[in-house]
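Structure request: CmpA/NrtA family ABC transporter substrate-binding protein, Piscinibacter gummiphilus.
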Amino acid sequence: MTIDRKAHMSRRTVIKAAAATSAAGLVPGLNTAVYAAGSDKPEKEEVRIGFIPLTDCASVVMASVLGFDKKYGVKIIPTKEASWAGVRDKLVNGELDMAHVLYGLIYGVHLGIAGPKKDMAVLMTLNNNGQAITLSKKLADKGAVDGPSLAKVMAAEKREYTFAQTFPTGTHAMWIYYWLASAGINPFKDAKAITVPPPQMVANMRVGNMDGFCVGEPWGHRAIMDGIGITAVTTQDIWKDHPEKVLGTTGDFVKKYPNTTRAVMMAILEAGRWIDAGLQNKMKMAETVADKSYVNTGVDAINQRILGRYQNGLGKTWDDPNHMKFFNDGAVNFPYLSDGMWFLTQHKRWGLIKEHPDYLNVAKQINQIDLYKSVASAMKISVPKDVMRTSKLIDGVVWDGKDPKKYADGFAIKA
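Returned structure:
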């Protein structure tokens, strides 16, 4: 469903006026196209970008709503999609030019294990953190409130346990499988895994179709507000500053429209910088994306966790400095090769791919490092010296991208 931008003109005008004041302080000439109208002029000026109703679609939406797209000579048309499978199909057949999309979906399509095989591209990471694993209130009432207690309940009361993710090769599948395994639960042998579109998670838990799910916000917090679930763990507690959604497209689009690709990346980077610039901007973002045209939920379901104010549904509250971030002085957006390789290691671990791929080569094919560096340089955004980074996950295992075969084979619990 394409967003009717006319219908939101009044709302947009108000927010844009507020944004211009703050954004103009970051980059002069907000309303002036910055391309030279020569060799770097965008080849395609209207760009359809698919998104799923989730808080982390915000930088795509705000790039359009605040007019950052026009600054760079393009018009972003945010296109609301119902499921990740729909996003995949429309990216592959060209109905969408780009998408706010799961990291592992792009890798799965590139390898041909998540639908039709097609060369794909990760242009940049859109956000770090901000997802959660929710257990049903019924399960929590029996004592399952975290990984170890869930394992005890499952061992004591034998039955089929069902956990939902949003796409078989996607981020949420990998987060919940990793977390279950860290508690000694094999997600395939000890439980049943199902796929449910993000906006339908809460409704499905309400009618008892699952014991737990992993999804992006606001749906974890929505389950708490509705009294049907509790937050067992946040994904930033599984992997601090993990990569989450990316700006994805096909390899063909990058080759055919390089200037358009760069222009869109700049507009979205600027929107992410605007969101992370302060409390007021986050509140405006929450108000905007809560609209029925985007996430379609109450502002309260979005603005608490976007500010790092968490509750778990059992009376515990905390301020989390590692909440969802869209820019973080540029630290969010670099498409590390090691991030992409990590998803391949998990695809191998869980049997989604049978043989070890050429991890580094596949990541180099997909992640557009040189393109990102050129965009970041033009915007004076710092980039890391190394295309790999080192992270310690919830089980204490360190991932640094140096020996992906050993890493993938090293887990005691696997397919």
